[in-house]
Every structure is written in C-alpha cells, then in structure tokens.
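Hypothesis: this fold can be encoded by more than one sequence.
Test: take the structure tokens below, design a sequence, compare later.
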C-alpha cells in the first residue's frame, strides 16, 4: 500500500492496483491535475472534504473514476455520484470497500449532525487494511492495519484523539485533518499521539505530496 497526503484529509491510496483519492477539500493542495484515478471517495459535504471549486475539474479529468460519497453529498452532487451508507459494500476493481460509521461527530448540540461515511479498504485476506473515518471517531470491530486518524478538529479534544487511537490500536497511524492549525502547532498534537498511543502502533507523519509505502 502506497499513500500520498495532499494535506488535511485528502489522501491518495494505491492498493492492489487500485488508485483511490479521498476527500479533495479546500484545505488540501497538490491533487489538482491528477488523472487515472479508479475512484474518488468523499466522506461528507463540508468544503474541507469536498471542494466545490475544484471538484468538478477533478471529476472531468477522471472520466473513468467511480464516484462515491455519503448519501447527503451524493444527493447534492448528483450525476454519477453513488451514495454509500454505513454497511454498504462495493468493489473498486479487485479492491473491496465497506462504508462505515454514518454520522459526523457532534460539533455543538445546536448544529445539526450530517452524514459522514467512513471507508474500510482491504482485500480477501485482510479486509481492513486502511480506514479513513472522515470526521468521526468510528471504532471498527476488525483489527485495522493503517488508520488515517483525524489529529485536530473543532469537534474533538486531544484526549478524545488519544482515546480513539487507543481504541482502534492500528499497526500504523497516519495523521490527517491538520489543516485547521499552523504547521508549527502540529507537533503539539502529533507529540501526544506518538507518546500516548498504544504499544505496537507506529505513528507516522506522511511527507506532503510524496508517496510513501506503509505496508
């Protein structure tokens, strides 16, 4: 598995011949001009996960890509977008994918909770090789190989991030959703996750816009 982080929650995953892009949002940069995608997966409608200005050009540049999103976002975007509910399963080539979670984390009790579909990617031998939870703290039943963990969010305290990492206990954790803070501040969050994560979990920061083998 090869991962490329384009900032915030935008991750390009290359697994078993499939090339999948998650959450090309307005806090992410470098995904513009990507072609040859097999699929684009969006977890929810917030613009930091689905940039309304750049998403149409990305879709046009990848006419062969399958398009999947949470139900509300799929309804908003229309066209070729397919709604994925929690529990739905589909395949991107030979790569099995399962929708998980279903709801965005609570930002404030007075703010309506929207759809948020996380995605589990795997294969026949390892059905949970990668989990991208979007804006949620969904804990799966399966052991997770690689977790894209939201590191900083307005809906989350650092103690909740640590507890989430401990609950999932993946082999490798890569931080995402850091675009809401300045770069010098990431060390505060990354340091706590690295120090307080479960034994046996490798915490690995992906270099920006550079593909990295993680398994």
């Amino acid at each position: 598995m090869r991962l490329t982080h384009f900032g915030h929650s935008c991750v390009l995953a290359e697994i078993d011949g499939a090339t999948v892009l998650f959450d090309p949002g307005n806090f992410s940069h470098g995904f513009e001009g990507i072609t040859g995608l097999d699929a684009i997966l969006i977890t929810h409608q917030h613009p930091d996960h689905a940039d309304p200005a750049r998403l149409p050009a990305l879709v046009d540049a990848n006419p062969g890509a399958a398009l999947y999103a949470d139900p509300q976002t799929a309804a908003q975007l229309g066209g070729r977008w397919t709604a994925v509910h929690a529990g739905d399963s589909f395949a991107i080539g030979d790569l099995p994918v399962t929708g998980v979670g279903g709801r965005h984390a609570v930002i404030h009790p007075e703010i309506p909770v929207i759809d948020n579909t996380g995605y589990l990617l795997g294969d026949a031998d390892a059905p949970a090789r990668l989990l991208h939870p979007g804006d949620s703290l969904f804990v799966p039943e399966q052991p997770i190989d690689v977790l894209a963990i939201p590191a900083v969010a307005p809906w989350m305290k650092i103690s909740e991030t640590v507890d989430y990492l401990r609950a999932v206990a993946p082999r490798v954790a890569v931080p995402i959703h850091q675009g809401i803070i300045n770069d010098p501040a990431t060390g505060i969050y990354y340091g706590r996750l690295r120090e307080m994560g479960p034994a046996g979990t490798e915490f690995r920061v992906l270099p920006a816009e550079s593909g990295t083998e993680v398994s």
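The radius of gyration is 16 Å. The CA atoms of residues 37 and 170 lie 27 Å apart.
Hypothesis status: open.
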